[in-house]
């Protein structure tokens, strides 16, 4: 296991538990306590954790992993979800994407799709996004037209946020918005950790005729700090596992179509 892989695992443990001890990390990774100390010091120097006596803790109750450390989490599920989402897109469609690892996979799937290259009467796909990483990665795809919103970037997620997002979307009409979320529940609907990202996602949804939520099973039945929209605003949920009976009832009552795309 490389150091980067170890750091990913340590950050996931801190995110899940709030704090970890050197012994816990050593057992989880199968490495020496000296190696764990060096890794924790590295993360502390990068201001990703708070170093404590005998371990490390999250920076706060709203702890959010930086995007580059989320990439390996639920990877197979996100690829399966992205494949199912791409099937909902037709050549010539305009697609709104917010930031995140799942929507990044959606963008990659659209970029690789031969079906969406279009033809004489269709011009590929237009992606409208506030995510700088998606815009950068898709800019080399000939059949993808990229439109980037205005805004101020968040280093944590590479997303543009602030009033310039809404200002730049004001005159757009998007066929389908695909949003990644941190939580999806019957009570609070779609939620995320940061209020600025929630507002940007709302603005993308507001100019879209159809709203798809792309979320793996770990996001379902939970809510996080900032609300994006209620369930009633969502048209389709694409996830990787069958939902519970209770959630299925709430989605059905709100008119949300559920598509399950199990990871292979």
TrEMBL record:
Instruction: Kindly give the InterPro entries that the UniProt entry links to this protein.
Output: Carb_Metab_HTH_regulators, DeoR-like_C, DeoR_HTH, NagB/RpiA_transferase-like, Tscrpt_reg_HTH_DeoR_CS, WH-like_DNA-bd_sf, WH_DNA-bd_sf
* Cited Gene3D superfamilies: 3.40.50.1360, Winged helix-like DNA-binding domain superfamily/Winged helix DNA-binding domain (1.10.10.10)
- GO MF, one annotated term: DNA binding
Q: Which UniProt keywords apply?
A: DNA-binding, Transcription, Transcription regulation
Q: Which Pfam families match?
A: DeoRC (PF00455), HTH_DeoR (PF08220)
Q: Which residues form the HTH deoR-type domain?
A: 3-58
Q: Which SMART domains match?
A: DeoRC, HTH_DEOR
Q: Specify the protein name.
A: DeoR/GlpR family DNA-binding transcription regulator
């Amino acid at each position: 296991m490389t150091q980067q892989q170890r750091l990913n695992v340590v950050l996931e443990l801190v995110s899940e538990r709030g704090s970890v001890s050197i012994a816990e990390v050593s057992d989880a990774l199968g490495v020496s306590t000296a190696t764990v100390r060096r890794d924790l010091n590295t993360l502390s120097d990068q201001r990703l954790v708070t170093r404590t006596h005998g371990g490390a803790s999250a920076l706060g109750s709203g702890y959010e992993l930086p995007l580059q450390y989320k990439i390996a989490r639920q990877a197979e599920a996100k690829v399966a979800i992205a494949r199912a989402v791409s099937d909902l897109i037709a050549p010539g469609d305009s697609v709104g994407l917010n930031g995140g690892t799942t929507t990044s996979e959606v963008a990659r799937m659209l970029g690789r799709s031969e079906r969406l290259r279009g033809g004489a009467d269709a011009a590929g796909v237009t992606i409208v996004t506030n995510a700088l990483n998606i815009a950068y990665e898709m800019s080399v795809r000939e059949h993808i037209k990229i439109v980037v919103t205005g805004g101020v970037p968040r280093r944590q997620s590479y997303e543009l946020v602030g009033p310039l997002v809404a200002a730049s979307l004001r005159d757009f009409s998007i066929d389908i918005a695909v949003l990644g979320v941190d939580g999806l529940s019957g009570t609070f609907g779609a939620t995320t950790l940061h209020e600025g990202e929630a507002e940007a996602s709302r603005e993308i949804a507001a100019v879209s005729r159809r709203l798809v939520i792309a979320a793996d099973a770990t996001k379902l039945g939970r809510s996080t700090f900032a609300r994006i929209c209620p369930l009633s605003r969502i048209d389709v949920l694409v996830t990787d596992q069958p939902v519970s009976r209770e959630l299925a009832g709430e989605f059905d009552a709100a008119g949300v179509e559920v598509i399950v795309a199990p990871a292979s």
